[in-house]
């Protein structure tokens, strides 16, 4: 049985987040940055690009707008992660760890993620539902899910 590419969760996900500026906006949001000017400073994104990315992330339900007003200023919006947005955190950490392993300079990774409670480094691990460690793709078997559109080879 083949899995057709017209029904792919990876492709659907990349339609939303598969762009450099989107990942940088999410990086800032995961770091607690909520305001447009701060996101622009942190990402270096042009104003129009950042505005478009924030709008798309709000439209897709990864961020939500929350109004705020500084004294003497007009009302503006902060951008806060939703549960849907927070669920992307392991993806960003995986990308960061890959970059640390293969692209970091001689000095090493620029940022280390540690557990707030104990200070130990954060690790991403794959486990099956029964708790077995999964080392990589050779230990995984794709099987049709409920939404599969199967074709016969």
Judged by helices, strands and strand pairing, the structural class is mainly alpha
Give me the strand/helix succession: HHHHEEHH
Q: What proportion of the residues is helical, as a percent range? A: 25-40%
Shape: globular
Strand content: 5-15%
Summarize this structure as a short list of keywords or feature phrases.
6 helices, mainly alpha, globular
Polypeptide structure, described:
With 153 residues, the chain is mainly α. The chain is built from 6 helices and 2 strands. The protein has a two-stranded antiparallel ribbon with strand order 1-2.
Structure described in brief:
By secondary structure, the chain is mainly alpha-helical.
Indicate the topology.
Elements: H1 9-17, H2 20-30, H3 36-43, H4 47-59, E1 63-69, E2 75-81, H5 83-86, H6 89-102
């Amino acid at each position: 049985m083949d899995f057709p590419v017209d029904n792919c969760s990876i492709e659907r996900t990349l339609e939303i987040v598969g762009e450099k500026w989107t990942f940088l906006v999410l990086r800032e949001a995961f770091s607690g940055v909520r305001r447009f000017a701060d996101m622009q400073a942190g990402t270096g994104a042009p104003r129009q690009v950042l505005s478009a990315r924030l709008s798309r992330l709000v439209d897709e339900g990864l961020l939500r707008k929350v109004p705020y007003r500084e004294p003497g200023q007009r009302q503006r919006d902060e951008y806060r992660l939703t549960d849907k947005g927070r669920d992307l955190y392991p993806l960003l950490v995986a990308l960061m760890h890959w970059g640390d392993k293969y692209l970091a300079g001689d000095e090493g990774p620029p940022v280390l993620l540690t557990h707030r409670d104990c200070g130990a480094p954060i690790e991403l691990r794959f486990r099956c539902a029964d708790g077995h460690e999964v080392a990589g793709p050779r230990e995984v078997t794709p099987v049709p899910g409920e939404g599969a559109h199967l074709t016969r080879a």
